[in-house]
Amino acid sequence: MQTRLNPRALDRIRYEQEIRSDTELATVLGMSRATVKRWRDGDSSPSMEQIALMVIRFGIPFEDLILVDHEAEVAA
Questions:
Q1: Percent of the chain scored above 90 by pLDDT?
Q2: pLDDT tens-digit readout, 54-71
Q3: Contact between 3 and 45 (Cβ < 8 Å)
């Protein structure tokens, strides 16, 4: 089973928090814009600590933040 960040969750956070860009979101989270871009593009995933930070900071449910790729599990 492979997990990755749901890019729609980033859009939801930005909308609900009135954050205008991924650059501003990265600043709020204390990380680089490149990191947020890699999450959005699916090139990397946030750590559990980073996910927990978003859950606490923005009040978004854990289940809404991640996508689970069940096909990757079956193929393995």
A1: 75
A2: 999 999 999 999 988 766
A3: yes
Q: Report CA torsion sign: 20, 21, 24, 29.
A: positive
Which pLDDT score is estimated for 70? 60
Range of the domain at 38: 2-69
Query: What span, in angstroms and rounded, lies between the C-alpha atoms of 28 and 32?
Result: 10
- Letter for the amino acid at 32? S
pTM here is: 0.80
Which single residue is written with the structure tokens 């009040």? 59
Q: Which long-range contacts does 13-19 make (Cβ < 8 Å, 24+ apart)?
A: 13/54, 13/58, 13/60, 16/58, 17/58
Q: Read off the CATH number of the domain in which 43 is found.
A: 1.10.260.40
